[in-house]
Structures are given as structure tokens and as C-alpha cells.
């Protein structure tokens, strides 16, 4: 029982990442009708915002410590971050909280990157076949990851969570299990809460604001909304920016879980497309639900008891579910009628 | 008329000229095709095949820097590095056999097919007479096979699977780097001394040749000292989130987690294991321990403080205090500003060993080089007294047990050397069962 509970909570944070990325994909597909294969790159750019913020906060003065030597026997160069020099302990706290602080950097960066991507390239492909969109966005993703690699190198760059959020929670104790039976890292719990708040915020925005209602109306019938004198294109472009922010923030907060490297976007991209297809193309609740469900299923399938029955099931479970869903419900779990049919 | 008369002397002269004339193309042909890419000009080309793109690109870049340094030293530039400490003194900074050393590079992308293609291009197009490199056993084994077929020497770079000099060994291929058997042998006494004999181990293993080899060796030695293997779970190469593989460890009753992962896999699995509170967690009345059988300095940087206190093994470390290491670190550090990684060290050493073998053999012919390297004993290259064993082309030498440092002074000071395990203990008999099924075959000089 404790093992099952452990896999459920374990699937939540993975599911959170899938859900947030799939939500962004769905927003773009639902509004602009674009199959964006560069979406994983936005997740990666978000994670590197955490790296950049950390480097900004660690910009240092260099002094020489004659009492210590470096590997060549020369006097050791000691770096002291400016924020620590200026603000003392508060500066050290800022560095410690660099990942959550990166949200402040990531929002404008993702808006700029998202809009540049949409206005600079993708808008020219709105009326082209999906195959063209896939090719050009996939190419864009490769270009973006090569740029990141050229700047930051190919090695993963660790981004630790703040000290206070680094340990693990013994959630089994809360539920009446013995100590150390169900352990869950605090930061993954934070990530799950963050995902719930972010996804909830987007759903509230779409359902309870005038902007959201216009966008939804545009998603349902673009022409009619246009005939009402509403500049729906501008709002759809804004939705692309919003999708970039959601995906970027998913990447920022994921940095302490998986050390950012240039390839991390590609690792998530294909899985998230499957999530979108299972959830139903164009369906926001479908993408979110499918993200969490597939995350948890993936965790379950990695249990040794399950793998003993079907070896290798952990590698194919998501695709297997996708096949079954598409055979039984071609629109996906909550797909909209007429979308990609 | 006597002038036109064909006498015996004239007949012999004419016959000699005619014979020489007829034989000329044959002489040229046989000379040109004595062996693949025989250097005929004033230069000789070496091919360095390392990952320049992909997940191991940084490690490949470090290896490439070391190869470039080796070429400089062979050509008499720079401070000479380990040429000054190498026990063989036949290399004098005038290239190899008086020919200036040039090099070409290929990108393996850490993919066997790409690595074979780039090696083939360097051999056929650029005329490389030797190929060196690798950052993955799968790649090294593939390229070693190609070099055997093409008739050039392969001086393996970073490859740690037993199979490279076990079932996949080749007469034209040589490995300086240690292997999983040597890791297991070296680490077992340290693990026993620190963690005791009553332990339950859980393996997470990268699902490819190196992972299987590493898991096998660790199982052999840990089970021999009384540890029980609770489970050995294969994880896909290149996975990012290991949480679904880590959580079953918590309920397995295991009190040691052995991560048979390398590179980015190691960074992610170790970081996440620490996040799950595994290190030091009480299990069976003992603290749960993590072991990383093969360390890489560059990846230790990626894992950051998570490596602290964790045991592993290494082929070489820049903090060794022998003269060879000091000379190499000085050369490399002054040129590039960072200490060299073990991947860089093994590449540099392999380049020097090849050049030395050619010089001693007096020929670039691969079969002469093979003869010069087989059973060759040397010292002064940072690994203590070393034997290039004739039977399997494996260097039998010291290797290191290392541990993540608790209080590093800088970003390069991440691992501390716990023990320098001498060759007598790290080495293994040539008839070891894990290395059977292979055959060096005959040396192939090519055309």
C-alpha cells in the first residue's frame, strides 16, 4: 500500500510538468492552430532562466588570497558575489533563493522569446499544412538548443532548491504509515502546488475574464468574432505569449529536479505531444488531466512488481495508452469535435 | 657493325633495364600499399574521434584539448609535458619517425554509427594512420571493429566496459583506460571497510554495454563479501527523471544504492536520489549509502554537492602527486586554465604511447606497432608502472578509489583520492571468465 501511495505522489510532479507543457501546447494549438514542435525548447529556455539568474546573482569581485593556492600553485582567486558585498546575509539569501527568484526574470524573457517566435517565424506558417509547421518548429527547436549549448555548454548545470526546501517530507507519517515508508522531496511538492496554482490561474483567466471569453469565442469560431470587430489575432498572439510563460515557468521550477541541459526540452516534447493527443487536441482540461494521469501511470509502470509481469512496460506505457485511447476515443479523452479529425 | 651486335654484356644490361622498368609499377604499388595510409610525405596524420556534439560534448572537448597538447609535445612545441617523465626516451620532439604530426578530428556524437562514419572518413579521406577517442563503450567497440577492418591502429579513449578488451577485443585495438572489473576489485575492500559485510544492495543500471558490465562486476565483488543483491533494475540510457526508479528503492529493504550510471544519467540519478532523502536515511538500523562506481570529474561538477561523501572509482586524478601527473597538469593547466579530466589524461597518454611504439618499431606499419605495444612495460605517465598486456591489449596498472569531497576549495576540487590501488591488486588474470569469448585475431595492416 505504501509503495502504491508512493508511486501516486511520485507521478504528481512528473504529471505537473507534463500538464503545464501540454497546457501551453494546447493553448497554442487551440488558438492559432499551430502544431508547435519548438514548445519543448521553451521549457528548456525557462530552465536556463534559472541558470542565468543564478549567474547574475553570483556576479563577483575577485580578490587574491595569498594563503591558499589553486591547482597550479598560484595564489587562489576568491570570488565574492556583489549582492553579498552589498547586502550581507540578505544577499546570501537571495542567492539561495535564486530558483524561485528566476520567475521574475523568466516572465519577461518568455514573453520576448514567445512573441519573437510567433511574430518572427510561426505567423508565416499559419496557412501552411501541419507538416510544414512541424518541420519549421522542429528546426527552430534545434536552433534554440544549439544556441543554448554554445553559450552554456553540454554538461548539466546544477540549480539547487533553496536550503529550506531541500529535504524530504515523510508524508507516510501523516497517513498512519511507519516512519520512512512514504518519502517525498519537498521541492517536488512545491512544484506540484506551483503547477496547480499556475494551471488554475490560466483556467480562471480563460473562464472568468472578458479577455478569456473572447479568446474562447475565437477558438470556437474565429470568423464570427472577427466580424464583431474584435482583433482576435492580437489576442491569439497574446495567448502564444501566455503559453510561453506557462511553459517557461514550468522549466524554471523544474531546474532543481533535473539539472538544466540543452537537451531537456526534447526529452519532454514527444511525451507532451502524446499527452495532448490523449487529452484531446485543443482541450485544456483534457491536456491537464492527461498530464497527471500519464505521469502517475508512468510511475506505476516502473514498479518492480509490474515490470516483473511485463518487462519494459515503463518505456512504452504512455504510448500504449495513447494507442488504446485513439482506437476507442479518436478525439482523445476530452477532444473537441472537428479538431484534427 | 660490331656496335650493333648484341653481345652477352649488352643483353644483360638491356634485360636489367627492361626488368627494372617492368618491375617499377609493382615496386611503387607494393610500396604504396604496404599498409593502410602509409605516410609518404613529411607529415603523418592522426585521427581524434571524440563527441563534439551531444551530451558528452564537454568531455569530448576536454579530450580534444589533451590530444592537441600531445601533438604539440610530439612536435617539440610547449614544455614537453609527460615526454619529460615517460620512461621511454625515444620521442625527442621531432614528430614521429621524423615526420611532423598533423591531426584531424571527427565527431562521434556518442552514437556508434556516427562514430564509425567519422572514423571511416578520417581514414579514407584524410589518411589517418591511427584513430583514438571515445566517451562511450558502445562507440569505442564499434570504432575498434572498424579500425581492425580498415587496417589502422585504434587507441581507445574513455571506455570502461569489460567487453572492449574482453569479448570484443581486436588485435589492432588497445585500451589504456581501466574497466569495470578493475573498478569492482579496487572498490570492494574500501566498501567492506566502510560499510561492512552485512548489506543489501539495489542496483540502478544504464541499459547498455557499459551499464551491464559495471553491474556485473559490482555484483560479483559485493556478493563475494557478503552483500545481498536485492534488485538490479535497468534504466533507459538518457533518462532524465529517475524518480519512478528511485521510489521502489525506499520499500525494498536495500541499504546501499549502487548507481551504475555515467555522465548525465549519473548527474540526474544521483541528484534525485539525494533529493529523495536517500543518503543517510536509516534502513535496517544502518544509514543508507549510495555508491557511484565510475566517476567523471566533469559530471561531478554537474551533480554539485550531491557527490559529497560518495565512493566511486577513477582511472586517474589530477591531484596525484607523481612526476608524470604534475608535468601533465602543469602543461594542460597553463595552456587551458583548468585541470585535465581523466578523459583528457587517457587520450593524451594514448597518443604518446602510439607515437612511442611507432618510434621504437621504426615503422608506422600497424603490425609493427602492435608488436611494439604488446607486453610493453612503461612508467612516468601518471599511472605508476604499467603493462600493456599482450593477450588482451588491456593496460594493467593502478587505479583509484575516490570519494566526493566534503569541503571542496573550488569547482575542480570535488573528489578526494581515498586509495591508490596498485596494479597487482587492480589487475586480473587474463583468463578471467568475464573476459572470455573474444579473440584478438590477426593484426591487419590493411591494403
**Derived structural class of chain B:** alpha/beta
End-to-end C-alpha gap of chain A: 41 Å
The count of DSSP E runs of length 2 or more, i.e. the number of strands of chain A, is: 4
Shape of chain A: globular
The CATH architecture name of chain A reads Orthogonal Bundle
Write the layout of secondary structure elements.
The complex is a heterodimer of chains A (341) and B (447).
Chain A: H1 2-32, H2 39-57, E1 60-69, E2 75-81, H3 82-87, H4 89-96, H5 98-120, H6 130-152, E3 168-170, H7 171-174, E4 183-185, H8 186-208, H9 210-220, H10 222-227, H11 232-254, H12 264-279, H13 284-301, H14 304-309, H15 313-328
Antiparallel strand pairs in A: 1-2, 3-4
Chain B: H1 8-32, E1 43-50, H2 57-74, E2 100-107, H3 112-124, E3 130-133, H4 137-150, E4 153-156, E5 173-175, H5 180-195, E6 200-206, H6 209-224, E7 228-235, H7 243-250, E8 256-260, H8 264-275, E9 282-283, E10 286-287, E11 289-294, H9 297-303, E12 311-314, H10 323-336, H11 342-361, H12 366-373, E13 376-378, E14 386-388, E15 395-396, E16 399-404, E17 415-421, H13 423-426
Parallel strand pairs in B: 1-2, 1-3, 3-4, 4-5, 6-7, 6-8, 8-11, 11-12
Antiparallel strand pairs in B: 9-10, 12-16, 13-14, 14-15, 16-17
Helix pairs in contact in B: 2-11, 3-4, 5-6, 8-9, 11-12
